[in-house]
Amino acid sequence: MNEEDAEEGAPVGRRIVLGMLGLGAAGVAVGASLQDRVSQALAPVGTIQNVLPAAGGFRYYSVTPSVDRRTAAAYRLRVGGLVARPRTFRMADLARLRQTALTRDFQCVTGWRVADVRWAGVALPDLLDAVGVSPRARAVRFTSFDGVYTESLTLEQARRRDVLVATQMEGKPVTHDHGGPTRLYVAPMYGYKSLKWLDGIELTEEVEPGYWEKRGYDIDAWVGRSNGRDDVPT
User: Fold this and answer.
1) Could you give the angle at the alpha carbon of 10 between the alpha carbons of 6 and 13, nearest 5°?
2) Domain named Oxidoreductase molybdopterin-binding: which ranges (predicted)?
3) pTM over 0.90
4) 27 exposed, middle or buried (CB, 10 Å; 0-12, 13-18, 19+)?
5) What pLDDT was estimated at residue 56?
6) Which end of the chain is more exposed for a tag (fewer CB within 10 A), N or C?
7) Which of 45-49, 88-92, 138-142, 154-158 shows the lowest mean pLDDT across its residues?
8) Cα separation of 142 and 84, whole Å?
9) Residues 6+ positions from 147 with CB-CB distance below 8 Å
10) Distance (Å, rounded) from C-alpha 121 to C-alpha 169?
11) What is the dihedral of CA 152, 157, 158, 161, to 10 degrees?
């Protein structure tokens, strides 16, 4: 998973995770000790990698045993598919685009939440405008440089201004453990949509289910009562 899901090989089944949701939701109110028990209960299922409680309430997960680190200087983001101007962005290129900042919760599908996280980066609509989206495009596919994890959004969802190619978190560059140098942050959806270690963005004709959607998770992962029409930053 990303910051809140799990691994390749023998992944956690959707029924098991959903069976833990009540316990996880209680943990949001009760505190870290219960959240730790949720992680411990999930840990023996399959081979979950890098499940680490951390300061600030985050839990770190990955779907591979290890992920290579990339420096900001070496980082490249490839954007292609159904676009007029395929392009590879360096960190400096991203910094030259319009910057968007927002403060939102990070909500895990297993129940834990980190409130009021400060994010900054390039709103995905601005990045898409920079490459020119083809009229044929209806969806956006994201890949991770872990080599395994993928995610997708409809083009309408990707055009929301609370969907970021995040380069900063809490006023600092996004760390490796949080998915840096850049990661996706999809504010109105559960964290498994916020792909870590963002490597590629591809415009496609239709939604391609991501890593966890292929294992039974919802493709449209709106948090709580969000229906995609809530207020977004401009």
Assistant:
1) 65
2) 70-212
3) no
4) buried
5) 63
6) C
7) 45-49
8) 18
9) 64
10) 9
11) -140
Residue type at 45 in one-letter notation: V
The CA distance from 223 to 4, in Å, is 14
Rounded mean pLDDT of 158-170? 98
Q: Are 63 and 146 in contact (CB under 8 A)?
A: yes
d(CA 11, CA 17) in angstroms, rounded, equals 11
Name which of 139, 159, 160 is nearest 210 in CA terms. Answer: 139
What is the C-alpha separation between 192 and 150, in angstroms, rounded? 10
Identity (one letter) of the amino acid at 22? G
Q: Which two tokens stand for residue 94?
A: 């991203």
Amino acid at position 14, single letter: R
Q: Which residues contact 139 (CB under 8 A, 6 or more apart)?
A: 152, 153, 154, 155, 158, 203, 204, 205, 206, 207, 208
The answer to whether residues 188 and 107 touch, using CB atoms and an 8 Å cutoff, is no
Separation CA 28–CA 37 (nearest Å) = 12
